[in-house]
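=== Per-residue structure ===
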Amino acid sequence: VEESLQVPVLGVIPHLGRDDKDRKEKASTEKERARDLIMHYDPKSLAAEAFRSLRTNVLFMSQENQGKAFLITSAFVREGKTLNVINLALSMAQTGARVLLVEADLRKPVIYSNFGLSKEPGLTDFVLGNYHWREVVNNITDVMLGEFEMDEILKTPGLDNLHIITSGTRPPNPSEILGSDHLRKFIIEASQEYDYVFIDAPPILPVADATEIAPMVDGVVLVYTVGKIARGVLKRAKSSLDNVDAKVLGVILNNVKPEVGPDYFKYNTQYYYGSSPEKGIKT
């Protein structure tokens, strides 16, 4: 992937043992929310460690490029971009940084339901001039008033540092909404108020939405589910971003299954925490 795209791999997210086809658009229970909010519900898991490693690489890239606003997208549908942007934002918030998570996938929004929030008002409502963008920002108070129970909120610290803008009213023309000057000004203003701004956008190849936003941000991160699509398709998506002068920072390899044996991740995790198996690690 690195040789093909000429950008680094920023993170490797392991296979989570689930099928995205079973995903429900409305995550209305704690069990359903826990499937996506890994950094909040399962912070000691191997997947959570993978997101912390991703966070470290993104922090390094942001310091190197002096960027704050990042677009997370994928080449095609069901590659796990929303899962990755949610947990990346949560991991950043858990460090004490002020993080704004923006749901710019206006066609199939799911972030609002993951946090038990109302979809409206949101991004489209302020872009259309009905609200100021600060009026549609959701914080910990809104999460508490939503579908989250208090014991869910207290599971892991960090939610108080995470602010969320939901998708808002579904528009007939998403690409025009996302390509407007209002959105460009918003990204500039939000970058001045927050330490990091993460934007979840639709896949690149099916629709033009992501390429409308990409030139406005400091960097773009591509999510690639290994084995789901051909690497030539991924390269075409990268070319689409290059054509609009977007700055592609790197790739997240999602849903990676260990090729060296089923116990590889288990052995390495146990070794890392000082409790390696009796026979040690086979390298």
